[in-house]
Amino acid sequence: MGLERETPRPALVGRGDLLDHLEKTLRDHGRAALTGPPGIGKTALVAAVVRPEERRARGETVLWLAPEEEDRDIPGAGAAGLLDDVPEAAVRELPRPQRTAVAVARRETEAPAAGQDRVALRLAVAQVLRLLAAEGPVLLVVDNAQWLDPESSALLRFALHKAPPAVRALVAERQHTSPLHAENLFGHIGPRVVPVPPLGADHVAALLADHELPARLAGRIHRASGGNPRLALAIGRSLAGTRTFVHHADELPLGGEARAAARHMLAEVPAGAHPTLLLAALATGPTTTVLRRAGRASAEADLAAAERAGLVTVGENGAVAFTAGVVPATLAAEADWAERAACHTALARAVGDPVQAVRHRALAADPRGAGAELAAELDRAVESCRRRGDHALAAELGLLAAERTPAGRSEEEVARLLGAAADAARAARPDLSKRAADAILARDVPPAARLRARLAILDTAFQGLTDLDETFSHALADAGDDPSMRAAVLVRLVWKQQLADGDSAAARATAEEAYRLALAAGDRETAVLAATARARTSRALGEPEAAAHTEEALTVWREGLPPALRNGPRLLALRHALFDDRLTEAREGLLALLPELERLGSTEDLVAALRSLAEAEARQGQCAAALAHARRAVSIALEAGFSPGPLWYSAALAETAGGSFRRAADYARRSLRASLEEGDQVFLHCSLYALGRVQLAMGETALALETLGRIRDLPITALTTDPSVLRWHEELAEAYVAGGEPEKAAALLADTVPVARRLGRTTVLTALDRVRGQYLAATGDPDAGAELLRETADRFTGHGLPIEAGRTLLALARIERRRRRRASAQAVLREAAGVFDRVGARPWARLAGGAPPRGGADPFPGGSAEPAERLTEAERRLALIVGQGASNQEAAARLFLSVKTVEARLTRIYRKLGVRGRAQLAVAVRDE
User: Fold this and answer.
1) Cα separation, 225 vs 58, whole angstroms
2) Staple 318 to which of 287, 381, 525, 828, CB 3.0 to 4.6 Å?
3) What's the confidence (pLDDT) of residue 252?
4) Is residue 168 classed as helix, strand or coil in its secondary structure?
5) Does residue 526 contact residue 514 with C-beta atoms inside 8 Å?
6) Confidence label for 558 from pLDDT (cuts 50, 70 and 90)
7) What is the mean pLDDT of the chain?
8) Phi, psi of 336 (to 5 degrees)
């Protein structure tokens, strides 16, 4: 039994808001019950809230009780553990009968012949709490409360009922299975129940970062773990330990520690319910109705038991969902083939969807004895799935059809495998694509079939193209001299040369050759893809023909090709509109395209459209919409196993616009890590830009210079001419001015302005003028600088870029402040704040309002003449407490200070942060 834990506050990924809510609940209500399934992180949250060393250092008493499972059957075990944690001085003040009862409970003396005096023991615990509360605040913590024995539970209930308000209690207990209820432990007072939800895929990615696992595995580990941190880390440790799982398309091995955890979870459910759970595990979208039809009359009762154990959730409509994918995987893996076949047979009769019915019949059939009719039925089901846009299920059924193709029909089998590989690529399912490709490449098939298999592998690699040189080499060998086949390989090689190699010039030449070969072969679809690749690389190189190349790709596409052509020219044209800041055109076009992509397009294109939409809205000042679209794109991409670097970059831009600078920097750093991991030169560049932009906004000039300076050293930077494609010039130039190096800013402007002017990049020129205005002010001509900044702000407004206009006003206010024109500076700041408020640009609004982010960053970042002082750690701790609503007296008690000391320290904090009251202080110290 753990009686006291001096645990340092852990870095709780994704739990910041929950932690704040829990601390507030405990502070305001005095009683809180933290609930959730095993492994969800209750103990870590308790440790983060309690922080015993800190509390004791400021005169607060912490009593910590953490019973183990075996304690549940030992009467009084919990009481003994609690009393062992009580300071001896408090025990000495008890009356003799109560001291005796405590000594007996702690096994320090033999029990009298009449047995333990339970009344005296109850009175002793109640009196101890009162005595401790007289000296200062008391926090009683009961972790693993489900293992508290009934006798101790009753004792604590009595003591807490008698306890004064200074005694607060925090209980953490297992969801559903705990014998405790609010009234059992807290009586009529009742706790505020705080459930701990699972982590999202995005937070699982952050949790796994320290395990050096590929970032794109986060979505699959999230599905397998259900967002349970312990399960996610168990899966991560098994992968990191074996070192056998290296490819994102391989099956996720769910053995070892993860499988053991799943068995432990299943052991919470009666064995008689396991057949129902196995049936649900093998079904697609199981419901209680389907399970009953399949022969499980006890389905509701079985599922209720599983729900109490935290294994499943059952919706109001009877829909059944497992909380963690490792559970159904374990059920299926540990059932023998005959059990699985019987379940699939029963499900085939029970489901209403004919596509699912044939799937279950196929899974119930022995592949060696399946007939041609079953394979033909599967073919028809595949076509049905394609018509309704479910390419993932089409790929799965195609693989089943290939496996059940009768012997001697190898051409039919290969055709089904090729169809499955293509469907898997459209669905962004590298696992299914690799299965199909491996099956094809293991056979003696014609080069064209081998090539299509290799193309499927390339099409599901996404950004991870660095290690595919051998695949490209084999693909070109398979293509031979066939122009159409060579064009198909080359158009994919363009992606590698641009993304992984960062060589836009080589990519441009390859795209041109692919276009020529495809036209010569009469392969219009490949010609469109090659023309699109040519337009993309032509734009990056700043070629004047780029717009004409885009229009040519669109013209060829319109001549009878599929509307939702993967990686087609429509998305590229809208991306170019985004680069040009034709944001209304880009946004309206993307919104119109979304329904078609959701119904008929590839998942890859859908995600690309969503992230482009988020970027356009962030630039346009539609901050809430940008955040929503960015989060949706991240969610889809992680669940699909995509490379998350591009998505985290878009999320960083959306957060910079309307969310939080802190989260924006976090997303940018994640994008940087993922891009380095996959050798993605384009988004390595983009993530550095996003991070440097946030650092510059936060006044972290030295960090911004370091981050943005790294961009100059990237190969892709030298080979990308158009400054609107990969942005960085204006941010680095501004960082140079802010960092006291205006001559470097002037040199960068001199290099960039002529190119932007030649290409007609109007908004890029406007951004460079903002830097020029700051440069003029920094080098002795503040009047000209201020005039140019005012004009630039107006131009940004005219271009429909409100956040950029507001940023320019911030720069103007900084100049006015340096010129000692404080009234003018404040007027400009109010104007900027109004701009930011109107569009919901929350982090910028806080800067303009003079409420700097955590750490006391200057609201005039970038070389202000009056830099803000940083808070000391003690000041920051007081600011956080007061910002959360504590009075001066409460803050003094919590920090073990006098009220006068608190008042004097608050005066210094207000001065440093430039705030005038508690409301502004709460904003200033908010976690941004």
Assistant:
1) 39
2) 287
3) 66
4) strand
5) yes
6) confident
7) 85
8) -80, 170
Tokens of 187: 């009586």
Query: What's the rounded mean pLDDT across residues 861-874?
Result: 49
pLDDT at 916: 62
Q: Which of 205, 156, 312 is nearest to 647 (CA)?
A: 205
Q: Are the beta carbons of 488 and 451 closer than 8 angstroms? A: yes
pLDDT score recorded for residue 218: 80
Predicted TM-score of the model (pTM): 0.75
Distance (Å, rounded) from C-alpha 598 to C-alpha 606?
7
Mean pLDDT across 571-599: 93
Dihedral angle of Cα 902, 905, 907, 908, to the nearest 10 degrees: -170
- Integer-rounded Cα Rg, in Å, for the chain is 32
Say how far apart CA 372 and CA 609 lie, in whole Å. 41
Residue 853 pLDDT exceeds 60: no
> What string of DSSP letters covers 195-224?
E-PPPPHHHHHHHHGGGT--GGGHHHHHHH
What pairing do the DSSP bridges indicate for beta strands 61-65 and 31-36?
unpaired
* Distances 532 to 8, 58, 470, 555, 601 between C-alpha atoms, Å: 54, 66, 25, 11, 17
Amino acid present at 803: I
Whether 441 shows a pLDDT value over 50: the answer reads yes
Report which secondary-structure segment, H or E, holds 62: strand 61-65
Handedness of CA 652, 657, 660, 665 (dihedral sign): positive
In the β-sheet with 138-142, what is the strand arrangement from edge to edge? 61-65, 138-142, 167-174, 31-36, 192-195
The CA-atom distances, in angstroms, between 768 and each of 434, 621, 696, 745, 762 are 47, 20, 15, 10, 10
Q: Say which DSSP state 112 is in.
A: P
**pLDDT confidence of residue 180:** 44
Rounded (5°) CA angle 63-69-75: 70
In terms of residues, how long is the chain? 928
**What contacts 683, CB < 8 A, 6 or more positions away?**
463, 499, 645, 646, 649, 671, 674, 675
Is a pLDDT exceeding 50 seen at residue 478?
Answer: yes
CA–CA separation, 467 and 456 (whole Å): 16
Long-range contacts of 379-382 (CB under 8 A, 24+ apart): 379/416, 381/354, 381/355, 382/419, 382/423
Q: Which pair of structure tokens corresponds to residue 647?
A: 């998505």
Using 50, 70 and 90 to split pLDDT, how confident is the model at 9? very low
Q: What is the spatial distance between Cα 289 and Cα 319, in angstroms, rounded to a whole number?
A: 9
- With beta carbons less than 8 A apart as the criterion, state whether 800 and 584 touch: yes
Beta bridge partner(s), residue 63: 140
Q: Give Cα separations from 198 to 21, 35, 36, 138, 201 (angstroms).
A: 16, 12, 9, 30, 9
Q: Quick one: residue 39, left, alpha or beta (phi over 0 = left, psi -120 to 50 = alpha)?
A: left
| SS3 at position 419 | helix
- Count CB-CB contacts under 10 A for residue 68: 13
CA angle, 608 as apex, 603 and 610 as ends, to 5°? 95
Q: What is the pLDDT of residue 857?
A: 36
